[in-house]
């Protein structure tokens, strides 16, 4: 009889990063003979796209039914245990984990980035939650160090998206711009970014890439409009398809990338593009540190970006960074736990 895993994460929201993680996880578990189910914001779409049974993530009866039927609850990936977004989302993911433990289910924290967590109460709650989990795997060394300070055993496995299968690199020299809405973004950031991209890349086509229509669509449109206002002759393409296959195909055309989302930066690195990180979160800053990327904080007052753009264009990647680009996800500890 096959084992059953229930996945709890940011599923069913048509977000590229979370969808690709779920797709990779589902593919791997199926290959190991594990049946996968999911809690989803859109069970019908999740079932159609990923061919899994899906339950409404807000329906208590469906949640309890799904947990009772599983052998393992897998929480992740991404950054679920943080309250930068809201305390409400943090409470939700913690509640699912605690409920699974109350029903004596094994719980796996899957390739998560932990934090930021603001407030002593919330930190204590996250510490407790992680301490009762059966296996904790993390996607970045900063989270790993944090849990070390908390005396919680964990495993550093990196991000599952490093296993994304790539299309053939097209080398068309396109410039990619990936933006998302962010309440603390400085009001002049879009205008300033458009200004400097126009200065340095006026001869190239700019691909504008939303990863999630609800959060990225409006600001990507606003950026294209601003770029066209400042540079009417610049060639732009605003990509409308946010499906996994379409986004991967578009990234094969990109040589230069300006990106806010973590998985946009990661996909650009996998394709060997020159990436500038546009930071709205500590996870973006940490990724930029790891790969020595030029990084702009979108919440700060825009200044003269000439020096940042100059360093970005002139940067010569050394051997260690080139090797890091070929990072792969380490499934061994998860396989050992599930298949034992």
Brief summary:
With 340 residues, the chain is an alpha/beta fold. It has helices at residues 16-31, 43-50, 60-69, 87-102, 120-131, 141-149, 189-200, 213-230, 244-251, 262-270, 282-291, 306-314, 319-324, 332-339; strands at 4-8, 35-40, 53-56, 72-78, 106-112, 135-138, 155-156, 174-178, 206-208, 236-238, 254-259, 274-279, 294-297. The chain is built from 14 helices and 13 strands.
Please tell me about this protein's structure.
With 340 residues, this protein is an alpha/beta fold. It folds into 2 domains: 160 residues, 3-Layer(aba) Sandwich (Rossmann fold), CATH 3.40.50.2000; 151 residues, Glycogen Phosphorylase B (Rossmann fold, 3-Layer(aba) Sandwich), CATH 3.40.50.2000. 44% of the residues lie in helices and 18% in strands. The chain contains 14 helices and 13 strands. Strands 3-2-1-4-5-6-7 form a 7-stranded parallel beta sheet, sandwiched between helices. It has a 6-stranded parallel beta sheet with strand order 10-9-8-11-12-13, with helices on both faces. α4 packs parallel to α5 and α7 packs across α8. It is globular and about 60 Å long.
């Amino acid at each position: 009889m096959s084992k059953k895993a229930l996945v709890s994460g940011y599923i069913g929201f048509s977000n590229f990063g979370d969808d690709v993680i779920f797709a990779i996880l589902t593919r791997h578990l199926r290959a190991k003979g594990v049946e996968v189910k999911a809690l989803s914001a859109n069970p019908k779409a999740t079932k159609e796209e990923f061919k899994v049974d899906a339950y409404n993530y807000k329906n208590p009866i469906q949640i309890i039914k799904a947990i009772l039927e599983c052998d393992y609850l897998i929480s992740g990936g991404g950054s679920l245990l943080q309250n930068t977004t809201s305390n409400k989302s943090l409470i939700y993911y913690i509640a699912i984990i605690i409920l699974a433990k109350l029903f004596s289910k094994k719980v796996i924290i899957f390739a998560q980035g932990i934090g930021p967590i603001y407030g002593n109460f919330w930190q204590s709650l996250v510490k407790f939650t992680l301490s009762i989990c059966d296996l904790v795997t993390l996607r970045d060394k900063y989270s790993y160090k944090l849990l070390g300070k908390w005396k919680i055993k964990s495993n550093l496995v990196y991000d599952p998206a490093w296993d994304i299968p790539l299309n053939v690199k097209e080398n068309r020299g396109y410039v990619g711009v990936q933006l998302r809405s962010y309440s603390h973004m400085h009001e002049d950031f879009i205008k300033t970014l458009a200004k400097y991209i126009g200065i340095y890349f006026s001869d190239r086509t700019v691909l504008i890439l939303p990863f999630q229509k609800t959060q990225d669509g409006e600001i990507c449109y606003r950026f294209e409009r601003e770029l066209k206002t400042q540079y009417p002759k610049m060639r732009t393409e605003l990509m409308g398809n946010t499906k996994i296959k379409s986004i991967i195909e578009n990234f094969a055309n990109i040589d230069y990338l300006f990106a806010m989302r973590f998985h946009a930066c990661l996909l650009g690195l996998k394709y060997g593009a020159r990436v500038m990180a546009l930071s709205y979160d500590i996870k973006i800053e940490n990724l930029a540190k790891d790969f020595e990327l030029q990084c702009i904080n979108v919440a700060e007052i825009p200044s003269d970006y000439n020096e940042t753009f100059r360093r970005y264009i002139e940067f010569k990647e050394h051997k260690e960074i080139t090797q890091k680009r070929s990072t792969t996800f380490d499934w061994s500890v998860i396989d050992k736990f599930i298949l034992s």
